[in-house]
Specification:
By secondary structure, the chain is α/β, with parallel strands linked by helices. About 40% of the residues lie in helices and about 10% in strands. It folds into 2 domains: about 15-30 and about 95-235, HAD superfamily/HAD-like (Rossmann fold); about 30-90, DNA polymerase, domain 1, CATH 1.10.150. Strand 4 (about 170-175), helix 8 and strand 5 (about 190-195) form a beta-alpha-beta unit.
Length: about 240
């Protein structure tokens, strides 16, 4: 793992793409822990498994297919992904704090701004509403828009690119997932890793001081990074 450049020069960026979960809000907010638990419950109930077997299958599918839902759909175990998404995203959002400072930093970015999530549109809207950043983005792209081909699958990225006419040399992608950033890097995007805060994390995230080679920049705090990054509006 190499050290990303210390000074984040993003003056070439005109399209800003943000992952949702554990990126736009801190990874220590108890959002994904709730979603993870509900995924296990859904798999157990749908496939008539005990919770231990359901959790193993859930994680096996996540590793093999990119998301648990994609694995369930690929194996014909759920006919419609919407019911799964509605169930697992029915969570307590009071764990997310409004963040007017983040809103100011995102709004200051010149060009187009998007949310690209493996979750549902409803979940993205709920999280952004809670954060107070819904009006910061030009559009949002969820896993259903990707035809249920989640990050890191290239086909999902290509659907995003085609929908919004994204030009790789002028695009930046903010993500907490190492493997999702790898696909973005292969497409020619500038990649920014938002590292997990100290505490429990999964194998696709990175902790403090960690930054794989396909990451151009890495930060422990999205707001701090945005506040120090050089953009086209500042360079003008």
């Amino acid at each position: 793992m190499s050290q990303p450049p210390a000074n984040p020069d993003l003056s070439h960026v005109a399209t800003w793409v943000f992952d949702l979960d554990n990126t736009l809000y801190p990874s220590d907010a108890a959002v994904m822990s709730q979603v993870d638990k509900k995924m296990t419950e859904y798999v157990a109930r749908t496939l008539n498994l005990d919770l231990v077997a359901a959790r193993k299958l859930q994680k096996d599918y996540w590793r093999e297919y990119g998301t648990t839902l994609n694995g369930l759909m690929a194996n014909g175990q759920v006919p419609d992904g919407r019911a799964f998404l509605d169930f697992v995203h029915d969570i307590d959002l009071s764990v997310v704090d409004p963040d007017p400072e983040l809103a100011r930093h995102i709004k200051a970015l010149p060009g187009r701004r998007f949310v690209y999530t493996n979750g549902s549109m409803k979940h993205a809207e709920n999280i952004c509403d809670r954060l107070g950043i819904s009006d910061c983005f030009h559009d949002m792209f969820d896993v259903e828009a990707a035809d249920f081909q989640p990050k890191p699958h290239r086909s999902g990225f290509e659907r995003f690119v085609n929908r919004f006419d994204v030009q790789a040399p002028e695009s930046a992608f903010f993500e907490d997932s190492i493997r999702n950033l790898k696909t973005a890097h292969e497409l020619g995007w500038t990649t920014i890793l938002i590292r997990a805060r100290p505490g429990p994390r999964d194998e696709e995230s990175a902790g403090p001081g960690e930054h794989p080679d396909h990451v151009h920049f890495a930060a422990d705090c999205l707001k701090t990074f945005l506040s120090t990054a050089k953009t086209a509006s500042q360079a003008a």
